[in-house]
Description:
6-stranded parallel beta sheet; 11 strands
Amino acid sequence: MPAPQTPLEQLLAALARGPVCLVTVQRVQGSTPREAGAWMAIAQAEPALLIGSIGGGHLEWQAMHQARARLRACAAGQAPDEPLQRQALGPSLGQCCGGVVFLRFECLGPQDLARVRERLAPRLHPLTLFGGGHVGRALVRVLAPLPFAIQWVDSRDEIFPEGLSSKVRCEYSDPVQAAVADIAPGSQVLIMSFSHAEDQDIVAECLKRQRARADLPFIGLIGSKTKWASFRHRLEARGYTEADFAHVTCPIGVPGIVGKDPQVIAVAVAAQLLMRVSPLD
């Protein structure tokens, strides 16, 4: 099954087919449903197609109608209204956020493909995931629409599924811990291979790199407290210390979610990752 398209991929596909009105949150004041840079798009040939979101509610509903009107005006060769619109989120919109949103409306065509791709391409947080088992697959599905660039590593070359997102790069590595050297600086690391022996070797290599370079801000290991206690004992015999162990999080996932279904674990871990990253400009 092919991976679902990201909103940007949907927009570019629609833009290749014909005119599109792009609505962007240019700036905000006070409390608003979305941040500056959020966007949605309406396609002229597909008036029911809404891509992306500027926050929903009456604000988005009104912006959709304005976008369609602008597309009709552009098609008729008429100059559309002022491209920047100020919207106060008060009683007139039936929204009580209390802030102000400035929306920019742009009628675009296939000739704008390259510019739109460059302008809207999201900056992604680097993440390395060791393990292509049930939890690893569930996690990749959950992370697909989120702002992560995933290096997915396993010692079994045949383990990776088809139709992955373009944000996922699969890597076969045997021994699997050899891939630690290729991790992008600043990456968050998740370790969930099919083998506890592999997991331990990956943790050891990550700690070795952390000693030398201090560039892995999060090293997460799937498993119980008992598993981590066993690993710590074995890693101590290899010369690692409490200062090293402080860099490892085990178990992983936000506290309070106790289910062990792969999808449940994936959601808990994705939430933990999102809590650790800051918005990217």
